[in-house]
Amino acid sequence: MIVQRTLDHSIRCSGIGLHSGRKIELVLHPAREDSGIIFVRSDLGIDIPARSDFVTDTRLCTTIGNGDAQISTVEHLLSALAGLGVDNARIEVSGPEVPIMDGSSAPFVFLIQCAGIREQSKAKKVLRVLKRVEVEDGNKRCALYPAAGFKISYLLDYDHPMLRKRKVSVDFSRQAYTREISRARTFGFLHEVEALQKAGLALGGSLENAIVLDTHRVVNEGGLRYEDECVRHKILDTLGDLFLSGYPIVGAFEGELTGHDMNHKLVMTLLADPSSYRIEELQVDETSAALPAGKPQEA
User: Fold this and answer.
1) Confidence label for 285 from pLDDT (cuts 50, 70 and 90)
2) How far apart are CA 107 and CA 98, in angstroms?
């Protein structure tokens, strides 16, 4: 039997919130079986389950909320938890957003690895996609469809010399999340960053936690970590957004020009049709094929 997994012990860190610019304290705790991922606004004492029905905003990032409590930019941490196969965790956040760290999920991967991951006694559950589900909005589209294991394909096509018709496909049965995806940073355009900061947003944004592009090049002195880093970051975001289904997914995702909003609509469309999926225990012969539901990935 393939079992659920949680953290071995609690671990903490602090960082700057991307939009508020505030210092945020973050603590990751082990959690009981079948509890899933639960965020806690530690300053308010309010729990917010990491599920799609608690998503309150998808502009610029993914935000979840419960009553007056909101936590934004949850997708990078969720991506790391999914990528390392953590089923259950309790996450305390001292403010309205998860710290941005370096703009990727690699710092969270390091944090989780330092805390350690332990197996629990109950069987691991996954969401198996049974039929194709798709959402479209103009030239944006994304879909989930049946497949062995877990795969993501993403096409990025922006009016920028470095971002025209860039496509990356990742089969997580063959490619390690920590090596191929986790180091990809969030990105933005110089004119957009300046406009956001004038509007009181992205106050914590800098070249230390994002790729910034001007009209023809990358502004960051160190350049890119991957040749196609921006597309890989879209895959990183997608994995985090899909984990809000409440389970690791067995199936394949394909997206074109989509972001948090379309990812959320896709998950909600999937869950609204009980004939399109099934919640089941992960089979032993699939552990090598489904990254978020399988064994620990090597760095």
Assistant:
1) low
2) 12
Q: Does the pTM of the predicted model rise above 0.90?
A: yes
Longest dimension (CA), the chain: 54
Residues in the chain: 299
Convert the pLDDT of each residue in 59-86 to its tens digit. Answer: 889 999 999 999 999 999 999 999 999 9
Q: How many beta carbons lie within 10 A of that of residue 114, not counting itself?
A: 13
Q: In whole angstroms, give the CA distance from residue 78 to residue 209.
A: 18
Per-residue pLDDT, 158: 82
Distances in Å between the Cα of 129 and the Cα atoms of 105, 146, 241, 244, 273 are 26, 5, 16, 15, 11
Share of the chain above pLDDT 70, in %: 93
The burial class, CB within 10 Å (0-12 / 13-18 / 19+), for 141 is middle
Residue type, 127: L
Q: How many CB atoms lie under 10 A from the CB of residue 212?
A: 18
Which residues participate in catalysis according to the annotation?
Answer: 260
Judgement on whether residues 278 and 268 belong to the same structural domain of the protein: yes
Give the range among 94-98, 187-191, 195-199 with minimum mean pLDDT: 195-199
Ramachandran area for residue 265 (φ above 0: left; ψ -120 to 50: alpha; else beta): alpha
Does residue 62 sit in the same domain as residue 200? no
Burial 89-100 (b: 16+ CB within 10 A, else e): bbbbbbbbbbbb
Domain boundary among 82, 97, 124: 124
Question: CA of 139: how far to CAs of 132, 136, 257, in Å?
Answer: 19, 7, 7
Instruction: Give domain status of residue 299, yes or no.
Output: no
Residues 193 and 133 in one domain: yes
Q: Which of 93, 103, 88, 298 shows the shortest CA–CA distance to 187?
A: 103
Residue where a domain stops, chosen among 84, 107, 124: 124
